[in-house]
Design brief:
There is one protein chain. The protein contains 14 helices and 13 strands. By secondary structure, it is of the alpha/beta class. The longest helix has 18 residues. Helix 7 packs across helix 12 and helix 10 crosses helix 13. A seven-stranded parallel beta sheet has the order 3-2-1-4-5-6-7, with helices on both faces. A six-stranded parallel beta sheet has the order 10-9-8-11-12-13, sandwiched between helices. The two termini are 26 Å apart.
């Protein structure tokens, strides 16, 4: 290609699930924009899925992958990452007018700085926070160390974004990063024109209830299981629960589904669930207690699938209570109540489905999100 006006390199340490989905989608969108070249660099732990490398090959962009360890505190070794060398390699290959390095590791990104590359064009750095977890009161030393690393982002004049507003507030609280330094830009995906909610078109079909996430206590899959058990025991037999994902408790989830085949099934990890599974659902449930910006919720509303979720973190930016889904507490009874409402009110299900699609187009469609990032990249050179 001709000399690009801007070369954008996305960089992350073993990006997974929602983080990888945003990176992949954004890189695919950017490479089709005039005057833009895109590349990526990945520090990959052993567990980083091979399918993600196939995603890169399919995108057809330059990429670098370096294997890293996954022992406690191993992120500190990323100070010696090959990022600077990769930046130099890309500069010499493309000779762009400007370069942007877009980091996706929140506060950890401070460990990669400064970028020491002998290049002839201006270089700016953008860092996205994909959620910030809370710290236990006893983790004082850990939090202080992370704050020192995070404040390197200020020292090296990094432009900050966050996928959700609670992440901005926590970054300020824990790390001392000023809220005004951040611009909130949501995750985004392509509108593939898919529609879920099959029961809204054929009320004789069972209500297809989906859970697509990690199987651990934080995500709250057990509350959903208890809710579906309650519904079925009360005589609501026209329901089907589909469990998909992986994690520490996936064997327990698989065992439970096997014990209740009349209304449950276990799919394990589903590749491209947004295309292969979500269009078969009528409602997606996520009773989590902590989130960044969960991509699975965005994938759900992109297909017109309503959501039942807890009012935490990034969920608050996706779910509009009573419009495209419902908020509930981590309580099986509350979840069961909302599911029963959707089961017995087909017009409500249809209404929520249409409004879910609208809410996606208004906020999360990739053309909107991509343009926000592209404008941000350009302003970093002003």
């Amino acid at each position: 290609m001709s000399r690009p006006k801007i070369l954008i390199m996305h960089f992350a340490n073993s990006p997974n699930t929602g983080v990888w989905a945003l990176m992949r989608t954004l890189m695919g969108w950017l490479k089709d924009q005039d005057g833009i070249a895109v590349a990526t660099g990945i520090l990959a732990r052993k567990s980083w899925p091979h399918s993600y490398r196939q995603d890169l090959e399919h995108l057809g962009i330059p990429f670098f992958i370096s294997r890293v360890g996954s022992f406690p505190g191993s992120y500190l070794l990323n100070y010696f990452s090959p990022l600077s060398r990769w930046v130099k390699n890309l500069h010499d290959r493309f000779r762009p007018e400007r370069m942007v390095v877009h980091l996706h590791d929140a506060w950890i990104s401070g460990i990669y700085l400064p970028i020491k590359a002998d290049i002839s064009c201006p270089l700016s750095i953008v860092d996205t926070f994909h959620g910030v977890r809370t710290y236990k009161k006893s983790a004082v030393i850990k939090r202080l160390l992370h704050a020192v690393i995070a404040r390197r982002l200020i020292t090296y004049n990094v432009t900050l974004t966050s996928t959700d507003n609670p992440g901005i507030i926590r970054a300020n609280h824990y790390f001392g990063l000023p809220c005004e330094m951040f611009q909130q830009i949501s995750n985004g995906i392509e509108d593939k024109g898919l529609w879920g909610c099959p029961r809204s078109m054929d009320p004789s079909q069972p209500l297809q209830i989906g859970y697509i996430s990690a199987f651990d206590d934080r995500k709250g899959w057990r509350y959903l299981v208890a809710a579906v058990e309650q519904l079925y025991s009360e005589g609501n037999r026209n329901i089907k629960l589909i469990l998909a994902g992986s994690g520490a408790e996936q064997k327990l989830a698989h065992k439970w589904a096997g014990e209740h085949p009349q209304y449950a099934s276990f799919k394990g990890y589903v590749t491209n669930a947004g295309t292969n599974l979500i269009p078969h659902l009528d409602v997606l449930v996520l009773p989590t207690n902590l989130e960044g910006m969960p991509m699975v919720l965005i994938e759900a509303i992109s297909c017109g699938v309503p959501i039942i979720a807890t009012p935490v973190d990034g969920n608050l930016d996706v779910v509009i209570d009573g419009y495209n889904g419902f908020f509930v507490e981590r309580d099986a009874g509350q979840i069961a109540e909302r599911l029963k409402l959707l089961l017995n009110n087909i017009e409500l299900l249809r209404k929520l489905s249409k409004q879910a699609k609208l809410s996606f187009l208004e906020k999360f469609e990739i053309n909107r999100v991509g343009n926000m990032f592209l404008n941000l990249y350009k302003t970093t050179f002003d």
